[in-house]
Amino acid sequence: MNLGEKIIELRKKEGYSQEELASLLDVSRQSVSKWELNASTPDLDKIVRLSEMLRLPILTRSYAYRKSFT
């Protein structure tokens, strides 16, 4: 599953439309659409906010990933 598919899945699970999510993130609906189509990638600050809003623990996952190499 790629990032765009994950954003779609979690956005729908939380009950947000693209427009609602965009408004909460202070971006355009077109930006959310591009993320979901993998035409662009959210900036890091948006990824952090997405992880909080969509309940995706990126910091925990990042830590586990790093630990797998040590």
Describe this structure in words.
This protein is 67% helix and 0% strand. The chain has 5 helices and no strands. It starts with a helix and ends with a helix. The model is unreliable at 62-67 (pLDDT under 50).
Kindly list the characteristics that best describe this protein.
mainly alpha; 0% strand; single chain; 70 residues
Question: Helix amount, in percent?
Answer: 55-70%
Structural class: mainly alpha
Distance between the termini: 26 Å
Q: Give the ordered list of helices and strands.
A: HHHHH
Q: Which radius of gyration do the C-alpha atoms yield? A: 13 Å
SSE order and pairing:
Layout: H1 3-13, H2 18-25, H3 29-36, H4 44-53, H5 58-67
Helix pairs in contact: 2-3
Short description:
With 70 residues, the protein is an all-alpha fold. It has helices at residues 3-13, 18-25, 29-36, 44-53, 58-67.
